[in-house]
Amino acid sequence: MSEESNKLDPISAVGIVSSLTKIPDGYYAVTQTTDGSDADLWKDGLFKSKVTRYLCFSRKTEPEVVVDMKLIDIKDPLPESFTLVQETLDKKEAAMRKRRLCVKMSTREAAETAVCDIQITAKSKYQLVNYTCVGEINNMGIWYRMGDVPRSQSSHQTRSAPKTDALYSTISRIAISRPQYQQLNNGIYTMTALDDVPFMVSEKFHVKPQQMQQVNLMGITIKSLAEIEEEFHYNFGTELSIVP
């Protein structure tokens, strides 16, 4: 993003007004095109109409910001995640007669960039540098410019904390899983993180033979190792006696 666009606060609302004398507080109206012509979106090329429509926008700090804009035909379906600018802000009349303006909103915290400026050009072939054309209406083009969404200090800390935790977690996993190497005379020996770690059963699971009880399960008697050795002990005395 350019330095100029970064200086502009994100736009938090876009609307249409029917009278320049009834612009809501905090809104800016686009009254002229880039070449100084009237930016009335309702005007008829043949007859002077008493009806006027002017695009306006607000940069008030709100929870949501505008991240995209589209100008569609009346019969076109509304794009997914977009909201229709259907009525004027001052008189609640139809915003446009030939086309429909719709905007896409996003929470300020989730948006990295947002719409920061809107311009209207009188000639469709006229290009604005670093601006995106929304569409054309009454031989005029509506353009918007994107800019970075500024972050407060607390927001930066909140957003960076999970990344820091994730980094430490990643480092811990690497330290555990990464093999270590020892150089020996006959080559390289790989030592894993589990080498030289003693494994033993916890003392709370140790049970003395005399403390074990015989369990009868479906007629099968479960005995301890000591009981089995005592019952089936055989010293091979007979076999040993005949050996010369």
From TrEMBL:
PROSITE patterns: MABP, UMA
InterPro entries, sorted: MABP, MVB12A/B, MVB12B, UMA
Topology relative to the membrane: Peripheral membrane protein
The entry's keywords: Endosome, Membrane, Protein transport, Transport
Pfam family, one: DUF2464
A GO CC term assigned to this protein in UniProt: late endosome membrane
The keyword Phosphoprotein is assigned to this record: no
Free-text function comment from the UniProt entry: Component of the ESCRT-I complex, a regulator of vesicular trafficking process. Required for the sorting of endocytic ubiquitinated cargos into multivesicular bodies.
Name the UniProt record assigns to this protein: Multivesicular body subunit 12Bb
Species assigned in the record: Xiphophorus maculatus
